[in-house]
Amino acid sequence: MSRRGHRAQIVVVGLFVVLQVLPVLAVALNAFAGEWAGTVLPEELTWRWAAQIFADPRFIEALRNSLLISFGAMTVSALVTIPAVLAGHCYLPSLDRWLGALVILPYAVPGIALALGLMRIYSGQYGVQLNGTPWVLIFGYVPLGASFYYLPIKNNLRAVPVQEIIEAGHLVGAGDLAIMRRVILPAVMRGVVVGLVMNFALAISEFVYANLLVGGFYPTLQIFMNVLRQGSGHLTSVVVTVYFVVVWILSTAVVAVMAKREA
Amino acid sequence: MDGTSRTPTLTLPQAGGGNGKVRLGVQSNKKTIAFLFAMPLLGIMALFEIAPLLQIAWNSLHDADGQMTWTNYAEILGSRFQRKSFETSIIISVGSALFGIAVGLPIANTLRTMPVRLQQTVLTYANIGSNFTGFPLAFAFIIMFGMSGSFTLLLVKAGIVDTLNIYSTGGLVLVYAYLQVQLGVLLLFPALGAITADIEEMATMVGASRLKFWWRIGLPILAPSLIGSFILLFANAMGTYATAYALVGLNANLVTLRIGELAAGDVYSDPQLADTLATLLILVLVVPVIVEQTLLRRRRK
Predict the structure, then answer these.
(1) Cα–Cα distance list, B230 to A37, A160, B105, B133, B295 (Å)
(2) Residue B50: which domain range?
(3) Where would I find the ABC transmembrane type-1 domain in this sequence (chain B) (predicted)?
(4) Which residue of chain B has the CA closest to A176?
(5) Any CB–CB contact under 8 A between B105 and chain A?
(6) CATH number of the domain that B240 lies in?
(7) What does the pLDDT look like over A152-161, one tens digit per residue?
(8) Chain A interface includes B156 (CB < 8 A)
(9) How many beta-carbon pairs below 8 A join chains A and B?
(10) CATH number, domain A46-262
(11) Which of B39, B48, B297 to mutate to test the interface with A (most CBs of A within 10 A)?
C-alpha cells in the first residue's frame, strides 16, 4: 500500500470516529458551558448545571429507574436467551432456524408498532395489567435484545465442533449439562459479554416503549430528558451526558475485557 | 449441524450398547430437555413479540364494537394526509438508505484494511453507538446546528448558509443520514469478508483497475448483501420514531409520528386507525424482506 493511500485510509476512518464522537462532545460541552450564545465555543465553563441536576430528586429517580430496568432487562434476557440459543444450536436445528427469524423480526418491525400492540394487550383488557409498571419494559425488551446474544454466540459456535465435543464429553462420562457449562459456554463467553453490553445499551437508550407504555408512572432517563427539554438546554445536556458516561464506561470495560482475552 | 445423523458413527461397544432404539430414546429425551431450556425465551417472544403484532392486525380489521370491517383501511387509503405520510416516510427512507450504503461501503472497506485490534475497537463502539438515537441524538444535533449552534455559526460565518433550520424536514434528512451511515458501516463490514485477498490479487494480476474491479467483480459479489443491508436501512428509517419526535415533534408528516399521534394524542386519538396504520407500515416493511429472502433462496438453488 502506498504512503498516500495509507494516509487516505486513516483520514476516512478518523472521520468516521470523529463523526461518532462529535455529537457527544457537543452535548458534554454544553453541559458545562456558562454563557454560550453567539459564539462558536462557550466563554466560560461551570459546574452549576451539573450541581443543579444532581440535586434534583426527579433526576435521581429517573437514573435509578433506568439502571434498574436496564440491568433487569439485561439479566432476564441473558437468562432466557443464552440457554435457548445453545439448545437450538446444539440439539434442535429446526428450532434454531425459527430463533434466527424471531430475533431478526424486530429489525423489520418498527418499535412503535410493537409498542402499540403491547399497549392493547397489557392494559388490563385480558386481565393482565403490566402497562405503567417497569415489568412491561423488562419483558418487552427481551425480544428486542435477543439478537445481541444470538448473533455473536452463533458466530462463536461456528468455529466450535459442538457435536464432536459432546461425543468426546460422553466418552469421559460427562453429562450434557456439564459439557454445556464447562466447555460450550466458555467458548461463547466473548459473544455473551458483547451481548450483555449491547442489551444494556439498548434498554437504557429506549424511548418508544418507555414513553408509550410506562411514561410518568416510572420515568426513565429518556423520559426525563423529554420532560426537561422545555427548560434550560444546559440541564438537559447534563442528563444526556450522564447517560453517555454510563454507556461509555460499560463499553470501555468490554473493549478492555476483550483485548485482555485476546492477549 | 444435524445431531441425530452423527450419533450412529459412535460405535464404541460400551457407549450406547449398540442398541439403536435405546440410543434414539436418549436422543429424543435430550431434545425434550433442550426444548424446555428454550421454552422461557419462546414464551416471552410469543407474549411480547408475536401477540402484539397479531393484536394490532386483528384490530385493524375490526371496528370499535368488534365487528369485522375494512373501513379502517378504506379510511386511511382514502385520506390524502395519511397517504402523504407514507410517501414522505418512503422518500426519506429510500434516500437515506441509499446514502447510508454509498457512504458506509467505502468507510467499511477502508476499516477492513486497518489492524484487527483497531477494527474491533471501532466496531464495538460503533455497535454500542448505534443505540445513540432518539432524544440524545436529536438534542446533540440541535446543539450543533440549532439557531445558535456552533456549526450553524461556523457555516454562516463561512458564508455557506444564511440560516439553518434543524427543526425541519431538512433537519430530519441530516439526522437520518447520520444514523444510516453509522448503521450502514456496521451492516456492510461483515459482508465485505466475501471479497477475499485472493479475489483482489487475481484481479490485479489480470490488470484490472480499482474502479473496474469494484464495478465488474466487487459489487456483483456484494449484491445480495447490499440489497439485504438496503432493506434493513430502509426499515430502520421507516420505523424511526423517537429521533423524529424529538426533533420536529408531530410537525413532520411521517407514518410513525402519525401512529404515535393517533395512539396517544389527546386530540386525534383513534386506536383503530392507529393499529391499521401500524399494520400497513409493517406490511410495507415485511414484503420487501420476504421478496428478498425468496430471491436469495432461488439464487442459492
Answers:
(1) 40, 31, 11, 19, 15
(2) 3-60
(3) 86-291
(4) B30
(5) no
(6) 1.10.3720.10
(7) 899 889 888 9
(8) no
(9) 261
(10) 1.10.3720.10
(11) B48
